Protein 1
Amino acid sequence: METKFERNTLNKRLKSMLSVDFRRMFTMPLLYIMVGICLVIPILILVMTSMMEGSVSVNPQTGAETVMKGFENTWQIIGTISGAESSDAQMGMDMMSMCNINLLYFFIAALVCLFVSEDFRSGYAKNLFTVRAIKTDYVISKTLVGFVGGALMIIAFFVGSMLGGAISGLSFDTGVAGASGVIMCLISKVLLVLVFVPIYLLVSVAAKQKTWLSIVGSLAVSMLLFTMIPMIAPLNSTAMNVFLCLAGGALFSIGLGSVSDIVLKNTSLV
Amino acid sequence: MNAIEIKGLTKNFGPKQALSGLNMTVPEGAIYGFIGENGSGKSTTEKIICGLIHPSGGEVKLFGRDYTDADVRAKVGVLIEAPGCFPNYSVWNNLMLQAANLSIPNAKEEVVKVLKMVRMEGAASNKYKNCSLGMKQRIGIAMALLGKPTLLVLDEPINGLDADGMRIMREILVDVTKNYGCTVVVSSHILGELEKIATHYGIVRGGKMLKEMTAEELNASCRTYVALQTKDMNRTKSLLSCKYSRVEEDEAGYIRVYDAKDPEEIVTHLYENGILVSEIKIDKIGLEEYYIDLMKEGR
């Protein structure tokens, strides 16, 4: 007599995979540490740069004096204005333009890489992939969970920026960007996570239990896209920026997700 | 219907050939003892069955379907090398996670049930990393049993278990085959334990199946011998060696005379030569000795 096997639909498989990954993500101390760091960093940056503003540093060789500039506006830590409205200070690659929300895409790399490599390092991948012949569920689930984790970090950074701005007494004037621009910028930044997570996921499934390799690889690849972030998601974002980020996210998720799927199908999982 | 049917399985790791045309047939409902030396290809075969590594060639079928069939694979329980658990999670959380992975509807009751089966209900709240090796093996078994698997693949499951743990493991494996109709593939170097439960055997060497047989066939092919002790063991041995083709001294200090049809004949022969037998018994060689003999023959 032939043994009967229950049909596992995509819906059922994906539901169970998502429940595993969300359960893991939200019981993982790393997520809360990362979110905590994202909350504290903007407060520290805004408060410390405000305290140091106006201080003079002297180059001992040339004797040239440099006056430290702080943030003039809270929104500067969220993004920069694109196009002709931007000032020199905003466009320059000074410390302030580097220490902003865009840094988070590197932190998200650490979160995703540690999350994925833990599956392989603990050996849980054996349980997971024995009962999952189709790897697509894993890729979709990890992308979605990575996106949620990344989005939470961006929201935490935004909240931290508000707190930091309030503590350091910086202006909340949205200026030419307008309130809608700031909101669109934030949505764009969140959607941009969908561009980066598939990259980190691909590197992680290729590196498997080698966490260091997945983190270094992810940082190296994301470095190439880092300069694109201020252009595609400026402070004065519009619906077009949101759409572009969404399209980019979908394209990267599907494209690189398929590559991750192929990697998982064709490589040893232990 | 066979639970597992493997034909001409090959696997290369770079220039090294781990499996070279392995054939394997595991009938449904069997407890299949998978035996072989270290590096003979047992774990590689098991990993291929579970879809964790890809074969270089050959055919693997599970319940008549390709081994990549998602519906069949959803009913495979596995314990290969070490249990795949998150070290910072409690035993309970690890099992609940696997229950979620398997979409078990009444997860809590199912987890309680498997914990009871492996006698680990008291350790559910322990962190996995704080569990002893034996406890970890039991957790691994509990994890593999979740969702009532149709096929269980266990690689060295009794490693690190104490005598009681081994007994429990035996009971579980017999229970799941009888009550769930589950097929079990179990590899182990502890052949004495395997012999107590296995219904079928597969002996593998150098990436090839050397022999496959049922427990009855093994029993029939295991030779009987007469084991005896005397006061002068050396003289006894030399005397018997002249008359019988195979006479050996075993680790327990007995002289074994293989293929001797009548123990009385041995006693009489020794008595005529002035040797008194202090102890004599008829016994059969076990799986372990059969395996060692088979390995020696092949060399």
Note: Residues 2-220 of chain B form a domain with the Rossmann fold fold (CATH 3.40.50.300).
Protein 2
Amino acid sequence: MRHILSILLENEAGALSRVVGLFSARAYNIDSLTVSTTEDPTLSRMTIVTHGSDEVIEQITKQLNKLIEVVKVIDLNESDHIEREMMLIKVRATGKDREEMKRMADIFRGRIIDVTEKTYTIELTGTSDKLNAFIEAIDRSVILETVRTGASGIGRGERILKI
Amino acid sequence: MQISGAEILVRSLQEEGVEFVFGYPGGAVLEIYDAIFRQQQFKHVLVRHEQAAVHAADAYSRSSNKVGVALVTSGPGATNAVTGIATAYMDSIPMVVISGQVSTPAIGMDAFQEVDMVGITRPCVKHNFLVKDINELAATIKKAFYIAASGRPGPVVVDIPKDVTQRLAEFHYPESVSIRSYVPVTRGHPGQIKKAVNLLAEAKRPYIYVGGGAVQGNASAEVTELVKMLGVPCTNTLMGLGAYPGQDQQFLGMLGMHGTYEANMAMQYCDVLIAVGARFDDRVISVPSHFLSQPKKIVHIDVDPSSIAKRVKVDVPIVGDVKHVLRDMIDLFKQTGQQVPQQHLANWWKQIEEWRSYNSLLYTPSTEFIKPQYVVQKLYEITGGDAIITSDVGQHQMWAAQYYPFKRPKQWLNSGGLGTMGFGLPAAIGAQLANPDAQVACITGEGSIQMNIQELSTAKQYHTPVKVIALNNRYLGMVRQWQEFFYGTRYSESYMDALPDFVKIAEAYGHVGIKVENPADVEPVLREAFSPALKERLVFLDFRTDQSENVFPMIQNGKGLDQMDLPPHMRDLQIAPFENNRDYGNMC
């Protein structure tokens, strides 16, 4: 099953490689990983999307907690949460495709952020599923390039991840 | 006053009360060695290979309550240390390894003797540091010692670039350390402890399974008290040997791949299992599904949450320091007056005594060939069971574990997790330095000893009079045993041809060497080696042992605990299968 792990860790050199090394050393999967500093510059917040059985996810969580630099780990799937991912997608936009592409971007609440005579670059935000749906919805042959951030997640309501 | 980084390191080690640093100098650590030269507080032990420095520091730690320290140079010095670091990591041994690094501007430039030590050791350390700022050096050393020794212990590497050892700064050693992201648990949850006690109070076939965590956690007294108080059977893992006294009636011997028949059968057929600082690893329970096919309730006490429910799902997990948790359990039993149901327990003991009566460690004595088991038994007798025993890896390791019933924790030092050949001799040196008055013996084989034989030189220099007990069967014995059983006796590369004359080697290094070929000579030669006349000498005993001897019992890969390959004398016995609620009457 797909899980989103939120990790608060010390913003120190090497901390990221410890986390990534743990996943490869123990043969766990990383579907996506995002990381950046928080409002407290000594801390980084990481979101890892992974999949595995409940036992595997339990081990991943425990092993992450065992890393000295990891402050806290939560599995966002344990309660309500919000998930967002951003994609920049460059598409060929010529002739009748040009209008169609604009319409599709609007339907998915995307924004066209760069325009040339032959291309659009669209910024799209949403759950990973929504981004997949956009890719499915347009003609594959017009896609020139995609870049995705990977999912970031946060708990709903009062639930917070803090020291 | 400002002092150099090297001096800060030395002062920090002094502050930690370090007695010995095991190491080997080189370009990147010259500054540190110069600072060591100018101090008297701790002693440096010059090994002959960096791997041995780490093993010696490791065994110094294993045989005492202190953190071992090793010091190596950058590049090859650092990579040579890696096997030793991984060995300590697998067995959760507290250790601080200091490695030199090229100067900070040279890092990443493929400089001479540069290697990414922090990157290489990341998967086999509890934690590691690269110190780029001299102002953080003292605090980092403080943290390294704290992390190494607290929680589930382990090795910590501190990589120090050469320019950091040369720069100047004020020295201030922190008095305490607190790391917000690292807060080890000590006390177990009272509710869970209560559940564990209640389970035992309803158990029909209770069993206590004790691992290396009880040795490292100094919980031997608590293990013994609980087992005695309840009157229940107890087993130790390879790493746990000595945590419960080996000669006691309630001790069923070691369990696992080469465990005793009774220890393994009890593990399979118990109905309430208390695991203390053990991790259900593959060499102990073999296949988890088969182990669990016989229903049982499992209580798992461990300081490391990730050890719990890793291979086996448990009913009552208790995260905490084993010493504290066991103390709380003992107190609760005393407070509530609960006990294990006596009628059931008596029946359980009858079953166990039946298993034990088959004497699974019996071997066929010989007047022609020296039996390796016999050598270990005689060693036990002659040392009064009090020696610190180190071992290498292979058949001799298993025979040492089976035939030398350890009396106390920290008496048996071996590489259980990583299985590192070459551990024994440097470990014996480290253990002897930590315990100058103890008798220390290294049980080894002709294969393993050659992996670090150069340390005979270190032993000479530092006057560590360890006794090397080489069970020399001219084969990589355990490899040969597997080839005999599973590869149609095709002994591929397991025969040790062109062996050196170990007596001459010992003598060349300035020690005493004795070759023993006749079983009748085993006892007198051992007596001689441990006699007052040779008390101050390293004695290398080259026992030419029976080449065809195998280690039994043995659990083959993929088989269960109750599916052991048995020693010859048990193979034709009609052993009744275990039966629930069987009436033993007066049969035992």
Note: The first strand of chain A starts at residue 2 and ends at 10.
